[in-house]
Amino acid sequence: MKRFAIVLLASVLLAGISLPLAAVTSLSSPSVSAHHAALYEPVTDTFLYEKNGDERAPMASTTKIMTALVALERGDLETVVTIPDEACHIEGSSIYMTPGEHLTLRELLYALLLQSANDAATAIAISVGGSVPEFARMMNERAQEMGLQNTHFVNPHGLDDPEHYTTAHDLARITACAMEIPVFRDIVGTVKYRIPQGDGGDMRVLFNHNKLLRLYRDSVGVKTGFTKKSGRCLVGAACRDGVTLISVTLDAPNDWNDHITLFEYGFSRMENRLLAEKGSFLYSLPVIGKEGGTVLCTNSEDATAILGRDEEAPEVKLDLPHYLTSRGRVGAVVGHLQFYRGDRLVCEVPLVITDESPTM
Questions:
Q1: What backbone phi and psi angles, to 5 degrees, belong to 228?
Q2: H or E element at residue 128
Q3: Among candidates 110, 109, 87, which has minimal Cα distance to 99?
Q4: Which residue among 33, 134, 233, 289 is least crowded, i.e. fewest CB within 10 A of its CB?
């Protein structure tokens, strides 16, 4: 990309700079088996697809995404948890813990998210919240902080209860928040993991129930769920070329294919577009005072943004002072290069002092 040289005396608004648009290969709106579904792009806060997205429904073990989020935000991964009687013999999926054995919170989270262990969920809730009801209160408090109006928890594992529900939209937002935590991303992207079994040196081998990690090359997580009442539930996440998508299906007979269809549709709609290469903008600023002269500044990194493939190039704005009072050091930040879609800032990169000479 050619350099641009401009002498700035004030903050400047540039006309939108045309960049090549990627070829539009959007698929037609997908058809899925799920009764409730959503496809979410979190950076732009865009739902690319929804089906009964705001209708309340049971969520089964996808509950454990919020369980893990609250535990990671409030607990210490290295805390050693003594497994209480109350956490043992919980119905449904389990790692068959025994009262009094010891596991770290980190190990319990692997059991929670890979093996979908209800006993691990209960142990986490008691360790972090003091009791299951108190931990459920924490889960609901966190949902309220996110502004979720159609989600309510009564337990940390997702066993059926009429007051335990969410929506495809809300579950996508919960997952987006959890996926911002590196440890959570690491766990849900793990296929197999070992944790202790009892305190005698034996080991449990945990296998991730999420087959998307094996079926879809761009999959990076996150969680399965099933009860007779909820049907098959699945939350997925996939990343391709800098774009991350979150898919949710609730009560979906053909969930694996549903998610692959949703991901392919989403990646056909969105891209991580290069707006400006590092060093492609070059500006000259006057220096007043005894030093005098001018200094050059340039964008110190690539500018990229998540955009729809059919969106026009963003408008470019410069945030720079009228002048500098000293020449400054090479690499010092003197302003920013900003890209806007309407009133929305989609990308901002620093403008730094450079020792390069301007080229035309």
A1: -60, -35
A2: helix 118-129
A3: 87
A4: 289
